[in-house]
Amino acid sequence: MALSRVCWARAGLWGSAVTPGPYVTRKLQLARPRAGLAWGAPRLFDLPCRSSNLHLSPKADVKSLISYVVTKTKVINGKYHRFLGRHFPRFYVLYTIFMKGLQMFWADAKKARRIKTYMWKHNVKFHQLSYREMEHLRQFRRDVTKCLFLGIISIPPFANYLVFLLMYLFPRQLLIQHFWTPKQQIDFLDIYHALRKQSHPEILGYLERVIPLVSDAGLRWHMTELCTKKALSRAMLLTPYLPSFLLRHRLKTHTTVIHQLDKALAKLGIGHLTPQEVKSACYLRGLNSTHIAEERCRTWLGEWLQISCSLKEAELSLLLHNVVLLSINYTGSRR
């Protein structure tokens, strides 16, 4: 009896494992057409999951987050610009010029750093650079000197508010050209041109006193002819409010840099300069090129290079007088 009960119990257990109940059978029949799984096959949640198929990698998550933030920032920035342009148009113009000026100044700083790094790695001197690289470094140094003053006066606490007010009231004296409006660029260059004209009679007076010391009669006549012309511009845009020894050093350095630029420009060729580069080069050398046609500026610059490149290092003082004489005798200069 006991043995038969054990056999029947074992047969019942195996039978329940082989022949599932109606609920399980119906569930398997519903799942088979889609999954195509046989009895005893592992279910979907029992399979090992691969993270590369079901989840993004941490690097992709960071990239997607950054792109989302950048997109949202651009949208908000666009709305902010439209709000300023609609409700505060005058302030929006100043704001746009200021932001563009910061971008241009930052680009100039990165370019100057690349040039300096190249000079340091390859042991290249300033006069061995190309014309555009030399001109970029020269202008960037002047811009940094101007910005340095703003940085110094903004050091005290709460002085930055005063600095913004001074920048708004005195943009010509405190800001570089990147932060000028197009109209201000023309007006301010005319003002600087007028300042150069003020000291020009004194330079011509010195030349008149030198005339009797010239032994050659022909040269003496030519110098007299030059000095009788009306003065239209000044020699250099350098501040005269310095001690005499510092002023002499600045004049010598400035003249040497211009002479080196002239040699590099003669090597490059005037024809390779853009119209803006031509006008800037003429203005640096004493000609008010803001109101002169491009072709006339190129002609004048060619005459300048002929004289400058023929001078030796000991004759560079003549280059300062060349700034005066070529400028005042140009018929296209604006009075």
From TrEMBL:
Membrane-crossing segments per the record: 147-170
One GO molecular function term? ribosome binding
Q: How does it sit in the membrane?
A: Single-pass membrane protein
Q: Where in the cell is it found?
A: Mitochondrion inner membrane
Chief location bin: mitochondrion
Residues in Letm1 RBD domain copies: 151-335
Which Gene Ontology terms of cellular component type are present?
mitochondrial inner membrane
Q: Does the keyword Calcium apply?
A: no
Instruction: Share an example GO biological-process annotation for this protein.
Output: intracellular monoatomic cation homeostasis
**Organism domain of life:** Eukaryota
Q: Which UniProt keywords apply?
A: Membrane, Mitochondrion, Mitochondrion inner membrane, Transmembrane, Transmembrane helix
One Pfam family per UniProt: LETM1_RBD
The record ties this protein, via InterPro entries, to:
LETM1-like_RBD (IPR033122), LETM1/MDM38-like (IPR044202)
Protein known as:
LETM1 domain-containing protein 1 isoform X4
